[in-house]
Amino acid sequence: MSQKATWIILAVIVSVSAFWFIFTGGLIPERHTDQAPPETESGDQVITLKFGHDMPEASAQHETAIRYAKVVNYKTQNRIKIDVYPAQSLGTDQNMLEMAREGQLAIILPPTAKMTTLVPELQVLDLPFLFPDRQSAYAVLDGAPGQSLLNKLKDHGLVGVSFWESGFKQFTANRPIRTPRDFHGLNIRVMKSQAIMDQYRALGANPIPIDFHKTYQALADGTVDGQENPLVSIVNMKFYEVQPYMTISNHGYLAQALVFSKTVIDSLPLEIQNILLASGKEIVSFERQEIMEDEKKFFKTIQDFGTRVHHLTEQEKKEFRQSFESIYLNYPEDKGKKILSMIQNFLIRRKITQQNEIVIGLNADMNSASALSGKAIHRGMILAVDEINRSGGILGKKIRVVARNNSGLSARGLENLKEFAAMDNLLAVMCGIYSPIALASIDFIHQEKIIYLDPWAAATKIVDNGHTPNYVFRVSVRDAEAGPFLVSKARNRYKNIALLLVNDGWGRGNEKGMLAALKQQGMAPTDVQWFSWGQADMTEQLSAIETSGAEVILMVSPAAEGATIIKNMAARKKKLPIISHWGITGGMFWESVKKELEAVDLSFLQTYSFFGEQTQTAQNLMDEYFKMFQVQTPGDIFAPVGTAHAYDLVRLIAMAVEKARTTDRSSVRDAMENLGAYPGVVKNYNPAFTPEDHDALGPDSFLLCRYNATGHIIPILDIDPEKNK
Prior knowledge:
Blueprint: H1 3-23, E1 47-52, H2 60-75, E2 80-85, H3 93-101, E3 107-108, H4 134-141, H5 144-151, E4 158-173, E5 187-190, H6 194-202, E6 206-209, H7 215-220, E7 226-229, H8 231-236, E8 245-261, H9 262-267, H10 270-282, H11 284-305, E9 308-311, H12 314-323, H13 325-329, H14 337-355, E10 358-364, H15 371-390, E11 399-405, H16 410-421, E12 426-431, H17 435-448, E13 451-454, H18 460-463, E14 472-474, H19 479-491, E15 497-502, H20 505-520, E16 527-531, H21 539-547, E17 552-556, H22 559-570, E18 578-580, H23 589-593, E19 602-606, H24 616-629, H25 640-660, H26 665-672, E20 678-679, E21 684-685, E22 703-707, E23 713-715
Parallel strand pairs: 1-2, 1-3, 5-6, 5-7, 8-9, 10-11, 10-12, 12-13, 13-14, 15-16, 15-17, 17-18, 18-19
Antiparallel strand pairs: 3-8, 4-7, 4-8, 19-22, 20-21, 22-23
Helix pairs in contact: 2-10, 2-11, 15-25, 16-17, 19-20, 25-26
């Protein structure tokens, strides 16, 4: 044999060896003896793939993996043999993930929470009460949202095929768990997922990441007080033996992803790839059915052992959802905010289609400087909707509130509106505190004919927007009237008035109204000072105002900048009184300046107070508020105007739907202009709106308030000394 021929033979041998190494994820073809490996009819050798997972042999996952191996073997005519390794026998989930990424392990089945370090967006699946039921979870995971998540694995050397499940998670603990308060102070074992850890921190618990197979010992020796897992894990890992209490909560869904090593799958013939991937999708329904059948046996095992089991009531579930509300509203962009919105919209459309619900959206700041305003509005909406739904809904349909956070950004507010416009059965959208966002939305809402309900934003042009027909309806202050009101209150005691205003459309609109009101009195401000959003020092503005000879300042400011003004004023030798627009009450203003307010005389505009004599509607609202949100005094109703206005607006639009006898938005809009009397919270509306006037409140509803020593907003006597005699 020539030297050239020898080299050719050696090259072929090396190539074939490398070929089989890649195909098998680091394994050689199956050889049980020294005989040649078995061959298919076509002469191909058997390719052996390893499939590793963390579930025990008695689990539905392992049984399904074995079935999957048999199906693939049959479909490939014995060309593919899959060996299944259960119970982390090849390593932890993290070990197996790395092995798959490096091409050393062909198939894995990790819980999605274990892959969040690679794909942070997968954390959305760990959010509590994301899925109302199994069918909703299947619809999301088998649909576009699930595929979008699986596609993200490709950038990490993995190929996502389908979602299997362990089912809904339940709580176990060493004490009864019925309310969020029961978790306070407990150490809870969790998977290493930021979303899950945030969940328990929201409950006042201490989340401790512990490997799955070390959890039993951690529970037994008291390292942790409780854990969460589906019934399959609670029984197979015998957690119920060392946890005397279990709560059936269905609070979280534990999905597992059937995942291939990209190195392995890409190296296989296309025909084999297609069989592996298609079979991986087809086997899903079998796995899920096995889980559901097993759960019946698992539950009986737990009960027979003597574990005390509690099923959360609907009211208890509602309390937990409220505790987790901030997790959703503050969910970060880099952890899959867009995927979360996709899932939420998918579920909303599915539920609306199934239950024929009516949607009222909320587009407000829920996590930034003025988050209190958005949360107050949300609470008012929820209370009104809950009351209406308990009475049978409107036109036989239930109402659903869908909240979206805009973080005070106009661009995000417009994105949210586009999401709302795509929803079936959308009736209306309620805005938040920021006038610039509302003004930026005007053209779009009229283009889409969306009824726009305004419970706070005060810019005059939000309602006077030039559109006919006009789709905006407001129960709030109107700046054209707010400025003159503040001037009138200042004029009762002071002659020299200065203005301190935020430099945006809201501030400029108020300047116009204040200057006009002063001019009518034959006056002018001693000074007009402006400041920018985010400005951290107002010393220059306050010095100029003091130099002008002002006796009082009329302030128009958001909460954060307003707090800066108060702090700067408290530090001055001469402390001028301040009468403010209400923007400061929509955020964490009082918490920032409660000490400084002992030295600064601050009063501010409001339209309503839960203190004092109340209408029957207002009293009913307070009673429901106390019950739903576990508070005891009117002062605990934060940002009260947001709650009161939102409640009245929902009740008014519900009246309009009943009057129109349809949810067609154009017809409901027309009905809003022709409502009868409604005894509301803020006032008795008779009527609230007319074709010529879409502002339901006027100066007769305005009052001045202040913060008391505990931060409660309370009315004050009129600052006209003559009226106080």
